[in-house]
Amino acid sequence: MKLTSLLLPLALLGAAPSYAEHTSNWAVLVCTSRFWFNYRHLANVLSIYRTVKRLGIPDSQIILMLPDDMACNPRNAFPGTVYSNADRAVDLYGDNIEVDYRGYEVTVENFIRLLTDRVGEEMPRSKRLLTDDRSNILVYMTGHGGNEFLKFQDAEEIGAWDLADAFEQMWEKRRYHEILFMIDTCQANTMYSKLYSPNIIATGSSELDQSSYSHHADNDIGVAVIDRYTYYNLEFLESEVKDTSSKKTVGDLFDSYSYEKIHSHAGVRYDLFKGGADEARRRLVTDFFGNVQNVEVGTTTNSSFEEEMVKLSRTIAELHKRAEEQEAAERNATASASVNAGTEKRLQQQRKIQQVAKPLTDDNWWTKKIVGATALAGCAALWGWGRIWRVWYEELLRRTILHRRSVSISRLGSSRAHRCFAGHPRSNSDNPRPTTSHKQSSRVESWGG
Amino acid sequence: MSAQPLSSNDNDAPITPITPKEGAPASTRKLPPPEKPSDVRRRSHVILSFWLIVLILGLPIWWKTTTIYRADLPLQEMLEWADGKACRPVFPLRISIQATSLQDQEAQNLLRLTQHALDDLNDFAGHHLRLQLGDEKLDSADNGSALIIRLTPGEGTTATLDPYEPILDITYPPNTIPSPTASSSPLATYIASQLRTTFAEEQATISYLLSTNSMPSEHRPLGLSPETTESLAKRTTRSLKYAPTYHLTFSLFTSGPLPSSWNIEGAIDEYMKPVLEVLSPIHNFTIDTQVQLYASPGVQNQILNKEDLSSFINAAEWPLSPSIGGAPTINFIVFIGNQTIANPSQDSPTSQSWLIPQWGTVYLLSLPDDTTHVAAATLKQPLLTFTSHLLSLTGTPESGSLPLRLSTLARIRSADLLLRASSTLGSLARLAMALPSISIPSSVADGVTKTMSHLRLACDNLGGTEGLAHARIAEAEAERAFFEKSMVGQLYFPDEHKIAVYLPLLGPVAVPLVMGLINEIKAWRKRRRERAEKGAEKKEQ
């Protein structure tokens, strides 16, 4: 007895965190580069998109960010298609693709807004990451990056700190259960170095000062079609994870990386994960790339109980309705006259309200007006004051000059005007600008950094 | 700039300065003409005005435009809510006893004894049953009691829950009425234990909720068996997050061209509407339906194993998330086909449906091949399954009569919302402290204030009907405050970035300004020294 009473709280403590089970899978797939020669980045993202879709994550739970449209690029020799392999076996664009953020919508701000769900009312649900504390999220990013940053669209960049803070905000609001963060860019491993929120497994394609290389080019398309890191990830996913019943673990996936294949040192970070490397490596690949739920098979086919319930609720609803009607009838009897008057008034009010033109956004409308008016008035005052001041100043100047003149007349002749300008003899031997010698890599491969 | 005049041109005669400097080297070098005092003054005015503009106009504008507005948040209070210190969730449930056949004295006595017995049984202070003597006329809705016990004399001691109203009918043999002096009575103990079993699930659920949230340990009830915890964990995993409105999508998928129509509206009216109506005080529902022909499932096997079921839904091709409006969707799918679910044990009949946690239900319906229209009667079984799954997806408790289950659901949901709003407040407070560069608009502070006042009201009315309404508002406000749209931006700027932004902008402006000021100060000091020397010379003379 004593033992059980001692054990019970222990069992509770043990039981509380062990229910760890996710109920939904989400994927955030981000490409961050534009332009034709970055074809491979879009192909990277689209091939991951295809994979997670193959493994059962519905489009409503995939957030796909594509800053450019390679399929419709005029330089595309195969219009309407995107391929990630020179054999051109699989058209990644296909006829069933849902891009959530496209073109100039792909910005750092939108990405952070997406992760933290700080979006306006107008944002449709399909463009939001509606995760909760039972959601596993795959975050895949690719583009051009550097030490602790990833460039977005040639115009801005996301820092490793921004990313870490965004994940922390998600953790604070219990917006994820576990995250697998993958990034394929130059010096990718620096991007996850600043993360500090729990339950994140992070992996990247290359170390600090290492480029991330492309795998091969398609001679007809004319550019590289996929990056090495993504290529070998896909190879593993295509060959080892054929469907959602696969039992391959994340550890198996990470073990498949090698320098010989990727040509850079892929990195993995386990320390944020509860239970450390062992626990993290034990997670199934389909925990992040697939959509596997623990379904409950219905137990009974005996419908009498359910029928009973429906009958019951019908009666209850009727009872409620009757009670309400009775109440309403009583209320009506006592106060029908006043109600009538009230509705009349309300109608009038509504009509009145409709007549007033309202600005679309009503926040601080008056404040803005006042600020504008003040600014205008200020400008006018400044101008007027300047006029007055100038007149006054000229007057003052005239007086002092007159005064000076009267004083200096006596001294005339003692000084001589001197108009010699002392300039510097400057040697015009400007150094020729040192031309930075660009090391052109002799590889056929293009590099991502 | 080295003040090396061009000069050493012998043609130009050296110009003697008007006021030769004391001890200056012989004027072999050419010097610029002296400045007029008015020019000197003007120059200092110019420099002064530049600096005044920079200091009076520039600096405040820069300060104003670059400071991040951070409204004051009551951080301490918010953290107290999150830690459960601000509110101790108690559920005082009032239970009326209607005993018309008893004398007032007897009834009072019975009530006292039952209350004693109840208090002895109860080990969780948060969930508290309080008995009171009720009037015959009042029903449960009016006096706010959770349950009415109707005592009637009868043959033996029996207890039955009224299926339509929250009423527990208890019959007792007349001789079991305790005498006024008795310190215990079998009838009182019986009533107490009946009450306890009636509310056992609610107690367990609420104590589980409290234990999974960050409540301080002294409020945390113990005594849940691991099995109970597990089943409760399973149930919370299954049920959706509370939302005031749910969107129900009924889909008919068929692998061929037939059937192409179904009488879903009639079926819903017949088999689901009543339940939706009784749920209406807690949730609103919107409904849409669709029929999809030639839909192939994700798994083609004739017999579906449990592993196959989770990939049965062809997420890539089935249009299942219409994303209409802002409400979360619950999916109910009828799939016409002759696939069957593998039967784990031979003795129970094969099941035709499975529930996907927080998502919905799939029902496999096999029909003759030439069926073109699915009648409402055929949909009866699927719809009844959906109805019972809907109840479990919304987190309705499983035991007790329906009215009791619903009122329990309202209480569980209000506790849940209260805890969630509190934890959101805590998140917001921690975030505000952790990220000093995030802006906090005043609307967030307003939201926090509103949240806390409603939380207070909800906390005070947890056992009552008001609780849910307040908790709902509090949760909505807390979410709005946390997800304030303007509280974003790139939060972190390294110092290198700041320098990189400011230097090209301010460097070229600042150099002449600073150099001018330094020169002017130097000149001013020189003039002062000269004047002082002159004064001294004059005195000597």
From TrEMBL, chain A:
User: Which stretches are tagged as biased composition: Polar residues?
Assistant: 426-439
* Record key words, sorted: GPI-anchor biosynthesis, Signal
Q: Name one Pfam family in it.
A: Peptidase_C13
Q: Where is this region: Disordered?
A: 324-347, 420-449
**Pathway stated in the Swiss-Prot or TrEMBL entry:** Glycolipid biosynthesis; glycosylphosphatidylinositol-anchor biosynthesis
What Gene Ontology biological process does one annotation of this record name?
A: proteolysis
One GO cellular component term of this record is: GPI-anchor transamidase complex
Descriptive protein name: Peptidase C13 family-domain-containing protein
Automatic annotation (TrEMBL), chain B:
Compositionally biased residues, Polar residues: 1-11
A Gene Ontology biological process noted in the UniProt record is:
attachment of GPI anchor to protein
Localization, per the record, is: Endoplasmic reticulum membrane
The regions listed as transmembrane in this protein's record are 46-63, 499-519
Q: How does it sit in the membrane?
A: Multi-pass membrane protein
Q: Which UniProt keywords apply?
A: Endoplasmic reticulum, Glycoprotein, GPI-anchor biosynthesis, Membrane, Transmembrane, Transmembrane helix
Per the record, the pathway is: Glycolipid biosynthesis; glycosylphosphatidylinositol-anchor biosynthesis
Q: Where in this protein does the record put region Disordered?
A: 1-39
GO terms for cellular component:
GPI-anchor transamidase complex
Please state the protein's primary subcellular location.
endoplasmic reticulum
User: Is Chaperone one of the keywords?
Assistant: no
Q: Which PANTHER family match?
A: GPI TRANSAMIDASE COMPONENT PIG-S (PTHR21072:SF13)
**Record's protein name:** Phosphatidylinositol-glycan biosynthesis class S protein
Question: Native species of this protein?
Answer: Apiosordaria backusii
